[in-house]
Give the backbone structure.
Amino acid sequence: MAPLTATSAAREILTRLHDVMASRSAAQTKLNQVVQIIGEALGTEVCSIYLLRDGVLELFATRGLKQAAVHVTKLGLGEGLVGTIADNVETLNLDEATSHPDFAYKPETGEELFHSFAGVPIVRREKAVGVLAVQHREQRKFDDVEIEALQTVAMVLAELIAGAGLIDESGPGAQGARDTSPVRLPGLKLVEGMARGKAVYHQPRIEIEHTVAEDIEVERHRVISAFAKMRDQIERMTREADFGAAGEHQDVLAMYKMFAYDEGWIRRINEAIDSGLTAEAAIERVQQRTRMRMREISDPLLADRMHDLEDLSNRLLRIVSGQLGTAAQLGLRGNSILIARNLGPAELLEYDRRRLKGVVLEEGSLTAHVTIVARAMGVPVLGRVKDVRRTISDGDALLLDGTTGSVVVRPNATMEEAFEARMVVGQKRRAEFAAMRDLPAQTTDGLRIELMINAGLRDDMAALDVTGADGVGLFRTEFQFLVSATLPQRERQQRLYKEVLDAAGDRPVIFRTVDIGGDKALPYMNKADHADEENPALGWRAIRLALERDALMKVQARALIEAAAGRTLSVMFPMVSEPWEYDEAVALFEAQRKWVHGRHRPLPNLIRYGTMLEVPALAESLDMILPKLDFLSIGTNDLTQFLFAADRANPKLAERYDWLSPAILRFIGRVARETRAANVPIGVCGEMGGRSLEAMALIGLGIDRLSITPAAIGPVKAMIRSLDAAALRAKMGDFLARPARSLRKDLTAWAESNGVAIT
């Protein structure tokens, strides 16, 4: 007998299920036959089907458990092993069921005789509508072959129970009386901006009508043809994508195209067809597997790449099924805000940019490919918005506020007027800020503040001219690493750095060496290096990683040195905790400078070395490190969480610690005094400097260089040009000597009484 494979096992079961599904038997009879077929094919002593009815999982059919338990045994979502599988939409495979913390004993089933347990969710419309479970007396885990076959069969079962009218339509998300009252949904700001329009769902739901193939070769040819059409679409899109300037989004699209030609993906779909599935069902089967893997991925960068693969699966499924296309292919009829669980970069490019005003995502992240492309398109994006499908219907009026991070659904007249007023005020302010573009960031008493931008992409450099900023105070070089499928080669890095310097012209650019690792792990690096870090922000990242993996830093050093030939190169090292780390980093750069010089290649006229002060420990070694520095930058984002031991990613702590608390201001003030006494230029880069009241406080502490987001340049410059810096600095001592819990109230009152423009 040939060895059992997932393909052969599934094919044997599906062949027999085909006849069951085609028969005119009652639904209960069919399910009774199904558990017999699966149990016999896999040689399991127990096979059971649980279906979701009225929000409860009910035992509908079984082979091996007591028949008296059918329609009697019931489990809530999250209750027992079956409830856990349905609630988490995940597979369980246990050699001893009773050892699992979620095990719930149901005496009427007689299951105490059986030790091993495996269960897979029966999924329809991305939600579990039941569970298929098998059990053995023997204490062993089920083979991967058996699990794979169960997952394939569960997919076919979803069609059978839907056709029999056994799907529970009364659960969450079911259609009923629709709420028409206004609702405000919070989210994560991915691309800032404000937009209004009608809700349009990106992807009409594709219903797979037939799952079991009549002719495998016919299905295979359908998939081959669909792949060819999909690749043609993507080739055309990448040729026609017009952003007006080169940028990292081009790398994103190149990687997206690479996924479309991935042989592993094609092979998995063909294997699913071999098991007896139709082309549509095979694509959906592989897509389900991808979704389950995504739930297990904690690495956000790897998850983003999995989203790209799901985007391609959706595209392929639409082509092979011949069903309606995306909202982009159907055409937007007016000003629209797109709604999607997630979105691939190529799918976003298909939309009419004149009518697409914004995007709302159930998922999404700051480093996702769609975010990078949307930023280049100038489309505001809000991510991590929960309960979208339950709350928003096609055609609902939406007000998307990408500056505060919320979307208002079905706004009333008062909300509409307030939003419109904010948009008008925003446009007026932008016009006022634009009028100040060429004016210096100088206080009323003549103090010149360097006002610089934070950047990380080539496209960001356009903001220098738009805002009139003095330069780039923080260029995050890791962005190029985060959007790449492989480690960027030296030539590619060098090309980016040279383009950035060319765009800046005479304005300075401070390059921060790559800050990866921790919560910015790269999928192409050894996973063992950053696996299971309980506190990734405090872990193996930034300068720690770069010094240990010095080949990565050597390549970046050479790329920066060669790109800055004939100019000044400013390099800043992140997360330095002790002076010796800075010394080693500088020594590495200097060794690369000597190497380049030894090859008779042009060098920078000058290399300026600086460090970020994010780790509080470095403040205790300032006397040792300041004599070696050309400049110092305080990174307020990480500094705040380290100083307060508060994870800024934790929503319960995100707003707990005020940047205007005495602890932060006293710390920064002390560092500023020591640094200025050593005649070392000091600045702040981070969100703190981008808020006008906080920026005013920093100037009061002696900071005269701020590096902030481009959008904050206008408001902060307006504040600076209305500020008497000497008067504020004279007052800051009093504020800090007898501080309240936060100085926000005192500083706001002082700003108002002194005519400082705070927004």
